[in-house]
Specification:
Chain A has 88 residues and is an alpha+beta fold. Helices cover 45% and strands 28% of the residues of chain A. The chains are: A alpha+beta (88), B mainly beta (15).
Chain lengths: 88, 15
């Protein structure tokens, strides 16, 4: 199974409003909201996108399809920003 | 059980 890690040059600092992600090589940084932090931590714990979505759906009583769409969108954003790497 | 969809927002760049 493929699991996700933060890119080696990326640091995450949790804040009252979620977390800030800093790419130390490029100097770029991003704000992640609390729901995003929950999803990212779930993924970094080795869960799949689907499992993260299921946990999100259970936590907020969401429709599973809605949760999967939201998780998929976040993962796409994280990948596009080069904040994640895949580890086999 | 308030839901805000997960969101990543680019803030800026350290110089």
């Amino acid at each position: 199974m493929m699991s996700l890690n933060l890119h080696q040059d990326v640091s995450m600092a949790e804040t009252d409003d979620g977390a800030v992600l800093l790419h130390q090589r490029t100097g770029r940084y991003w704000q992640l909201n609390p729901t995003g932090v929950f999803v990212l931590k779930t993924l970094l714990d080795g869960r799949t996108d689907e499992q993260a979505a299921d946990q999100l759906a259970a936590r907020h009583r969401l429709d599973t399809a809605d949760a999967r769409r939201d998780v998929s969108r976040l993962v796409s954003q994280l990948r596009a920003a080069h904040l994640l790497t895949e580890a086999r | 059980v308030s839901y805000e969809p997960p969101a990543l927002v680019g803030v800026g760049e350290f110089s």
